[in-house]
Design goal:
Number of domains: 1
Bound molecules: the ligand CSCCC(=O)C(=O)COP(=O)(O)O, zinc ion
CATH class: Alpha Beta
CATH architecture: 3-Layer(aba) Sandwich
Shape: globular
Helix content: 25-40%
Largest sheet: 8 strands, mixed
Strand content: 15-25%
Number of strands: 8
Order of helices and strands: HEEEHEHEEHEEHH
């Protein structure tokens, strides 16, 4: 078990790292307003803690002081204080509860959000199929040729989104390390913030290509 001082150092280091990644993602226009949230899971001997961005902050000017320590799988606040943990903490904890992720990033990146809009959908599971893009290799999938990104409903009660995410990840051992939320944004995860950010970059780039009209010309040829 780490000492209180060591735990405090871990939390501060994680907070500094989160703040730096957040400023970068904000500068790309992926966290407009106060949108988006990031977290890092500390080693288990740190009491199953995760450090997450505080709710409602300007994500372009965060510092290590703008973080809240929570239990990585229950979301219970470990350091009660003036700041509130992200309103979307339960989605992060659903990912930590079901995967070996050590970092989670949620942003409102424009192209991913366009692709997340479930226009015309009524019931059932919605997925965004992705095939053939070389950038899929950046996701670390068993089969990098194709995957399906789940698109979750944007329930007003975030807990309901988190429950659906937890169910999906429990049922799909081969699920990609990413998800979309309808008319809302994208969440990715990985072994650290850099890997989660790289996966996010790959998916935002693929969504941009799709939005710009990328299509399979061989399929087009066969059909005409
Ligand atoms: C204006 S953003 C609305 C909430 C949201 O979607 C988001 O990503 C930020 O929520 P947080 O509580 O983490 O600031
Ligand atoms: Zn959001």
């Amino acid at each position: 078990m780490t000492s209180i001082q060591e735990h405090h150092r871990e939390v501060t280091a994680a907070g500094s790292s989160i703040a730096a990644f957040s400023r970068d993602l904000y500068a790309r226009g992926w966290m407009p307003g106060t949108s988006g949230n990031l977290s890092v899971r500390l080693p288990a001997d740190d009491g199953y803690a995760a450090v997450i961005t505080a709710s409602g902050m300007d994500k372009g000017s965060l510092t290590a002081d703008d973080m809240v320590a929570v239990h990585a799988t229950t979301g219970e606040v470990l350091t009660p204080g003036r700041l509130k943990a992200s309103a979307e903490t339960s989605i992060h904890t659903a990912v930590y509860g079901a995967t070996d992720a050590r970092a989670v990033i949620h942003v409102h990146a424009p192209y991913a959000t366009v692709m997340a809009c479930r226009i015309g959908e009524r019931d059932g599971t919605v997925t965004l199929p992705l095939e053939r893009f070389e950038l899929l290799k950046g996701l670390g999938l068993d089969d990098p040729a194709r995957t399906e990104l789940p698109v979750f409903r944007n329930w007003p009660d975030v807990r309901m989104i988190a429950d659906e995410v937890a169910d999906h990840l429990a049922a799909r051992g081969d699920a990609p390390p990413a998800l979309l939320i309808d008319h809302h944004g994208i969440t990715t995860w990985g072994k650290d913030l850099a890997q989660a950010r790289n996966r996010l970059e790959c998916l935002e780039a693929i969504c941009q290509l799709l939005t710009l009209g990328a299509r399979d010309h061989r399929t087009d040829t066969k059909e005409t």
